[in-house]
Design a protein that fits this description.
Helices cover 65% and strands 12% of the residues. The chain is of the alpha+beta class. α1 (3-28) runs antiparallel to α4 and α7 (204-222) runs parallel beside α8. Keywords: Membrane, Transmembrane, Transmembrane helix.
Length: 341
């Protein structure tokens, strides 16, 4: 429970206790016992806390109709349990309490109190969630604006390099076919980056083509020390995903997982359609990391930290890291399916 939550509950209880005090004073013509009122609302608070924790912590993501159903079951239990504890305590402490047929009003007031307090709690919870949602949307818009500005600033250099690579490629003799292919792939990488800087979502096939060309160029550098496989369901090739979301993970695996090993390693990119969208997994047989300090991975590496943050902002969850067997690292994340039936 946060400080604001506690303050809200305290304010609600003080307000209702004061109004209850005034109502009793008017009804009896005398000032009621302060200890009686304190005991009354202390019991209500004790009974409220587990219900509040259940509804707003354990079942916070459940729809409102389910919570209302729980209220309909819990409300009479709340009133009965309160009465079964409150009346014996008053008797034990010698405090005044309503007896006989008038006790029905205690049950009625307790039920009404339950409805009022949880009505206020639900309104506050809804307001807090809407405020948080608005802040997230505002932050996403700010990040998008900054990204667009950065893309505009960076367009000149990649576009210039893209044209230069094409010019160099045209000047290489046909006999140097391998070199021509490498420059063509590098040129394609720059072209895709230019396209990605202007798009929020791209087809999965385009992203995988970009990753494949990147790995082909890295394989030219590492030779037999690097091998890779890409496994993806054919029926999801047209699904839309954020651009440049897989390549930073692949690059991290090559740079920090496979590159340090003399024997190199293998990388596997697997993408499947799951219940929650596209399930993306990038695994390697490299040196791995210490998962106890995995948060350091998101702070030290710019590529992974940016990818983790982008996923959290867009989908509410970031990258998941785990050990690969017998060695290496597995990075998983999921994206909602869009542009795909």
């Amino acid at each position: 429970m946060t400080r604001k939550d506690f303050l809200l509950i305290a304010i609600v209880y003080v307000f209702i206790a004061i109004t209850y005090f005034i109502a009793i004073a008017i009804d009896n013509g005398t000032n009621p016992n302060y200890l009686t009122i304190t005991l009354n609302f202390s019991l209500k608070a004790i009974l409220t806390l587990p219900i509040w924790f259940l509804l707003f912590k354990q079942l916070d993501d459940q729809p409102l109709w389910k919570k209302v159903l729980i209220h309909l079951i819990v409300l009479p239990l709340f009133a009965v349990v309160w009465a079964k504890v409150y009346y014996p305590l008053c008797e034990e402490l010698g405090l005044f309490y309503v007896k006989g047929a008038r006790q029905i009003w205690d049950y009625y007031i307790t039920g009404l109190f339950y409805i009022i307090q949880f009505g206020i709690f639900h309104i506050y919870d809804y307001y807090s969630k809407m405020r948080t949602k608005d802040l997230v949307i505002a932050e996403q818009n700010q990040m998008r604006l900054q990204s667009e500005l950065s893309a505009l600033k960076a367009q000149l250099n990649p576009h210039f390099l893209y044209n230069v690579f094409n010019t160099i490629n045209a000047s290489i003799p046909p006999s140097a076919e391998k070199t021509r292919n490498m420059i063509a792939k590098l040129s394609d990488l720059f072209r895709y980056q230019l396209k990605a800087s202007r798009a929020e979502l791209v087809p999965l096939r385009d992203e995988l083509e970009f990753v494949t060309k990147y790995l082909d160029l890295e394989k030219e550098r590492f030779g037999n020390r690097l091998s890779y496989k890409i496994s993806v369901d054919e029926d999801i090739q047209s699904a839309l995903i954020p651009p440049l979301i897989i390549q930073p993970i692949v690059e991290n695996s090559v740079k920090h997982g496979i590159s340090p090993l003399i024997t190199g390693g293998e990388m596997m990119v697997s993408i499947r359609k799951g219940a929650e969208g596209l399930q993306v997994e990038v695994s390697d047989t490299g040196s791995g990391i210490d998962l106890e300090s995995k948060e350091d991975v998101f702070t030290k590496g710019v590529g992974l930290s940016n990818t983790h943050e982008r996923l959290e902002k867009m989908y509410g969850h970031g990258l998941e890291l785990s050990h690969n067997e017998p060695s290496g690292l597995v990075v998983r994340f999921s994206v909602n399916l869009r542009g795909h039936n």
